[in-house]
Amino acid sequence: MRxxxxxxxxxxxxxxxxxxxxxxxxxxxxxRKSNRMLEERVADLEQQLKASNATLAEMKARRDENAGLVAxxxxxxxxxxxxxGELKAEYAELAKSKGDVVITRALPSALNTALxxxxxxxxxxxxxxxxxxxxxxxxxxxxxxxQVTVNDGAKEAIKKLADVLNRxxxxxxxxxxVGHTDDVPVTSAAxxxxxxxxxxxxxxxxxxxxxxxxxxxxxxxxxxLVGYGEQxxxxxxxxxxxxxxxxxxxxxxxEIYLREVGxxxxxxxxxxxxxxxxxxxxxxxAPATGTVVEKAPADKFENLK
Length: 305
What we know:
- The protein has two domains: about 1-75; about 100-305, CATH 3.30.1330.60.
- The chain is an alpha+beta fold.
- It has helices spanning about 1-20, 25-100, 110-120, 140, 150-165, 190-195, 200-215, and strands spanning about 125-130, 135-140, 175-180, 225-230, 255-260.
- A hairpin with a 4-residue loop joins β1 (about 125-130) and β2.
- The chain starts with a helix and ends in a 46-residue tail after the last strand.
- The protein has seven helices and five strands.
- Helices cover about 50% and strands about 10% of the residues.
């Protein structure tokens, strides 16, 4: 590259010599000086070009690296979105099967072990779900068909459950008793008069278990009752071989949850003061402490008392 600048200078000097026949020493020195300056300029430009090429190569390498990172992050994001969708579907299914009970924290290890051991000692009657802190009683082994009286064998197991619930590490948890049935309607005249429908039957069975826990020493202000009837099945209630609809035994159950969430408690009645002038202003009495009944008519439990 230097020759591109050296040759013109020499050519200029040759032309000058050819045109004049002689060149002074000063002119020759000036030509040589100009030639050195051109050579230095060429060397400087070559260095700048080399640096620019190095910078360009580095930028291309970074571009390729960033493109790889973007591709990786895009794939990772797609995978996370897929997993999020799967978790949402699992949560929706869990909410459908578990009802409205939500456990925000795992139970203490010793309490969890005690409940698991109790269920393991009574495998025909109950199961334990550590993820939700829930003991599930099988209604067919807890009650006679269409009845709400707890069997003697189930009473003994529920008494042992009350002993666990009375432990120091369980005292901070409230106990929610949830009754469920299959979808076979209440048909007998006696049961229809007493329970009206599956809501009444599920609440009645839950109430019977709640009373057993209370009799076992669990304080009333820790107890709550919910009756869902046939609304929260665990499995499909399929038809039998005769084509008639038969409720699944799995759906006939009473579930007992431990919850840290506070259950609304009725305020203690205040001392009566002067009656209001307008009887319409008298407020209805507060519901019984610790009892919650969902989706049931107001007179649902009159015959259960």
